[in-house]
Amino acid sequence: MKSILDKDFWIAEGRARVQMELSKVMNKNIAKNVILFVCDGMGLPTITASRIYKGQLQKENGEDGYHSYELFPDIGLVKVTLKI
Fold first, then answer.
1. CB–CB of 66/51 below 8 Å?
2. 18-28 tens-digit pLDDT
3. Cα angle at 16 between 61 and 35, to 5 degrees?
4. Distance CA 17, CA 59 (A)
């Protein structure tokens, strides 16, 4: 098993993730319902910090874990700016 401190670990992890995404079959069905989660203040730094903290509480390395919503098949981020 490769160490998470080894760059080859992350290269292999990245390749596996890309291959997993490329192997997905696109769902072309028409949606009957949509569930929209609106998480105010959940930018990338906040998500990363909360993931690390969650891992630390479980006596694990937080960078290796994921929140359940990060594993949803489709996810998007939106940035809203106000011009006054």
1. yes
2. 998 899 888 88
3. 75
4. 25
* Structure tokens belonging to residue 46: 């906040």
The 10s digit of each residue's pLDDT in 70-81 is: 888 777 777 778
Domain ranges for the chain: 7-71
CB atoms within 10 A of CB 47: 16
Which residue in this structure is represented by tokens 């929209």? 36
- This prediction has a pTM of 0.56
- The residue among 63, 75, 68 whose CA lies nearest residue 21 is 75
Give the C-alpha distances (Å, rounded to integers) separating 28 from 3, 4, 18, 34: 40, 37, 21, 15
The answer to whether residues 50 and 39 touch, using CB atoms and an 8 Å cutoff, is no
Tell me how far CA of residue 52 lies from CA of 12, 23, 28, 80, in angstroms.
Answer: 22, 29, 36, 26
